[in-house]
Amino acid sequence: MIDLNNKKFIALQNSENGEVSQQTCFHYFQQGKMIWAEYGGGEIAKGFLIGKWINETHIEFTYQHLNKKLENRLGRCVTLFQYTEQSKLLGIERWQWLDTLEKGESQIIEIE
């Protein structure tokens, strides 16, 4: 299991129906198998996610945010973490909005 505590990520790419962009920053925290994060930037005013490690490389979580239009959006996601050649964490995400049931994929990369 990878330690996500106090790690920061930005989006590398996202599906067109997603709201996360390269201006969105995620700040992760971890206690044991429990993970959570705060995020914001770009079209997202403020967001939170909470979930858990489901195996050595995958987390699952639910997320909720307010976008710049003050719309409350929520969904669920499973993320696979792996290391890049530069020893940065890369997250490959498969997510689904819970209000529209649309699905998408995104990638996040560790910064700092």
TrEMBL record:
Matches recorded under InterPro entries: Avidin-like
Pfam family, one: Avidin_like
Domain of life (superkingdom): Bacteria
Name of the featured protein: N-acetylglutamate synthase
